[in-house]
Amino acid sequence: MDDCVYGQAASFVSQLPQPSAGSHKGRPAVTLTFAQSLDGKVSLPSQQLHLSGPESLAMTHHLRAAHDAILVGIETVICDNPQLNVRHMHPSQLPVVENPQPVVLDSRLRIPSTARLLTTPQADSRLKMPLIFTGPQHDPARRAMLEQMGAQIIVVPCSEGRLQIDEVMRELHHRGVESLMVEGGARVIQSFLASGLCSTIIVTIAPTYVGSEGVSAFPLPCSSLEPLLYQQFGRDMVMVAK
């Protein structure tokens, strides 16, 4: 990839608002980021959907490098099998960049033992094994298996079948996470939008129509956002808001 792409991504991330000292006492500062189509879709049921172009993808990976941890839900793990590490940066930076701590919300411990979040760190010491948040009704045998593989399992209360986000935030802060990047999927995005915990929201808009089968991040009316910055990355438009 052209060096200019990496330079644009680094410059963009450096312009993002930084949380003021003490403004997020007791929890991490949260950056919610996701890509959506022109018709507002972020995913397809049970299949992977690639929306970001290479330029905006480089921006996302620079953003990952700027955060202590990166969080996704179990549906994203099952559907996309992500690595949640930093790859799309200048090759000279990759050996020295610190990868974020992967965090998974998985109320019933459905994460496959073959997930790259579990297998890739075993071959690369620069990567961290995931923190997996689960509910009280998880399978103890699966917990033992995942812990044997090196994952850390953290039990938090559930409400209406979903993990309580406030408790997740407290546990992450207790473990030294001061900045958290939330990437999805749709249900996780919706939960964080509803929680009011997001300091910054970064939306990549791809020039693509997905159609009625797509899943929206905004299924219900929500309050308007305050745009802070717009920038084009290749074919994509990125908006920063709060």
Assembly type: single chain
**Poorly predicted residue ranges:** none
Number of distinct helices = 7
Query: Major sheet, described briefly?
Result: 9 strands, mixed
What is the radius of gyration? Answer: 17 Å
* Structural classification: alpha/beta
First and last CA, distance: 31 Å
| Helix and strand element order | HEEHEHEHEHEEEHEHEEEE
The coarse overall form would be globular
Strand order of the largest sheet: 6-5-4-3-9-1-10-13-12
Per DSSP E runs of 2 or more residues, the count of β-strands stands at 13
Q: Quote the beta fraction.
A: 25-35%
**Mean pLDDT rating:** 92
Helix share bin: 25-40%
Can you walk through the features of this model?
This protein is an alpha/beta fold. Helix content is 29%, strand content 26%. The protein is built from 7 helices and 13 strands. The chain has helices at 3-14, 54-65, 74-80, 116-123, 140-149, 165-174, 186-195, and strands at residues 29-36, 41-43, 69-73, 101-105, 131-134, 152-155, 158-159, 162-163, 179-184, 198-205, 215-216, 227-233, 236-241. Strands 6-5-4-3-9-1-10-13-12 form a 9-stranded mixed beta sheet, sandwiched between helices. The protein has a two-stranded antiparallel ribbon with strand order 2-11. A hairpin with a 2-residue loop joins strand 12 (227-233) and strand 13 (236-241). Helix 1 (3-14) crosses helix 2. The longest helix has 12 residues, at 3-14. The protein is globular and about 50 Å long. The model has no long low-confidence stretch (mean pLDDT 92).
